[in-house]
C-alpha cells in the first residue's frame, strides 16, 4: 500500500531532470547503493528452496563449519500418526555439536530413517512435560546404549511449581519405568559404559531468560511460556552469530517476543483453525475456541506476532498437516504477516548461514538398520554372556541335540 508520502516521493522523482543536480537526488542515490550494505541479514535474505535433486538431503551429509542445520523430526501433536510424529527438533552445528529439542512419540523413527547415530543423541532440551513432547524418550534412552550411545544422556528441562512437577521427578520416574529393561540389557546387550546414566539439569522455569547451557561457543537460553499450567519454557540457541528460537506450546507472550528479537529461524506453535477443530473433534465452536485460546495460539494471533518480530524465517509448527488444516492456518497467519513463512512438516531441513537459509526435505529409509558412529575405535567390553538363573537355564531345550546339525543350537 502506498501512503501519501510515498506518492509525493514518486511524483517528485518524475518531475524534472533538474533533480540530477539536486542534493537530495544524490543522497537518495547514495542510500540506494549503501543501504543493502547496512541492512541486517534478516532484512536482506529470504528463504531459498532449491529444485530438482538439490531439493533433498540424504543421510550423512556433512555440515559446512559455519552453518547451523535444523531438522524437524516431529511436527505434530497429541494424536499418533504414521506420517507425522509428535514434536522434535534436531539442531546440528558446524562445530559438531548436536541438540534435540523435545522427543515426541514417533520422532525416534524419523531420526533413524535419516541414520542419525544414537551417539549424537545425548543432549535433550525439554520444553514441557506433555507426552506429545516426551513420548519417545523412554525408548531412545533404553535402546541407545545397545547401539553406540555409551555416554550419559544430558536432559535439560524446567522446574515445576512443586518438585513433583519438575524435570528431575520425571527422570526419576523414567528410570523406574525402564528398570527391567536396563537391568536385562546392562552387561549383555550393552557393553560396560555410562550409557544408562542421566545427568539432569533442572532450571527455574520463571527466569527470563535463564541460561540452560553454555559450552564450546554455544549458548542456550530458556524463557517461560504460557501453556496449560506453569512450568513450560521456550529456548533460544545462539552460536557463531546464528540463532534459532524454539517454543512449543504457548499462547503469544512478551517473553517469546523479547527472546525472538533478531533471531534467524523462529519457530512457534500454531493452534488449529477453530472451525476445523470443532468439526473434526465434534465439539462446539465456543468450546473449540476456548480450548485453543487457553493454551495455544490462533493463526491470526501468530501472524500478528510474527509481523512484530519480523524473523528472518518464521516456522509455524504443532499443526496436523491435512488438506483441511493448512489453508485456513496460512490464511489466518497471512492476515497480518507477509514475510518468509513455512508450515512445519516432518523431515524439513533448514541450513542456516549468515548469507542465506535453505529449505530441503530429508530423504531417508522407512526400514533402516541402526546407524552407528563409524569413527569410534575402542572395542566394547561385555560383562556377561548370560543373565538368567539356573532355574530358567535348565528349562532351555536344544531341539537339535540328537542331530549332527552344528547350525542348530
Ligand atoms: Zn504439544
Ligand atoms: Zn503441551
**Biggest sheet record:** 10 strands, mixed
- The class by helix and strand makeup works out as alpha/beta
CATH class: Alpha Beta
Strand content: 15-25%
Structural shape: globular
Secondary-structure element order, N to C: HHHEEEEEHEHEHHEEEEEHEHHHEHEEEH
Could you give the topology of this structure?
Elements: H1 4-15, H2 23-38, H3 41-44, E1 47-48, E2 56-57, E3 68-74, E4 88-93, E5 98-101, H4 107-113, E6 123-125, H5 137-143, E7 153-158, H6 167-177, H7 179-185, E8 198-203, E9 210-215, E10 218-224, E11 233-239, E12 242-247, H8 254-259, E13 265-269, H9 274-281, H10 285-295, H11 299-309, E14 313-317, H12 326-334, E15 341-343, E16 348-352, E17 357-362, H13 390-393
Parallel strand pairs: 1-17, 2-17, 5-6, 6-7, 7-8, 12-13, 13-14, 14-15
Antiparallel strand pairs: 3-4, 3-16, 4-5, 9-10, 10-11, 11-12, 16-17
Molecular structure report:
The protein has a single domain (17-362), classed as Metallo-beta-lactamase, Chain A, CATH 3.60.15. Helices cover 28% and strands 21% of the residues. The protein contains 13 helices and 17 strands. Strands 1, 2, 3, 4, 5, 6, 7, 8, 16 and 17 form a ten-stranded mixed β-sheet that branches. A seven-stranded mixed β-sheet has the order 9-10-11-12-13-14-15. β10 (218-224) and β11 (233-239) form a beta hairpin. α9 packs across α10. The longest helix has 16 residues, at 23-38. It is globular, with a radius of gyration of 26 Å. Mean pLDDT is 88; it is low at 1-21 and 23-44. Bound molecules: zinc ion (2 copies). One zinc ion is lined by residues 77, 87, 130, 132-133, 248-249, 318.
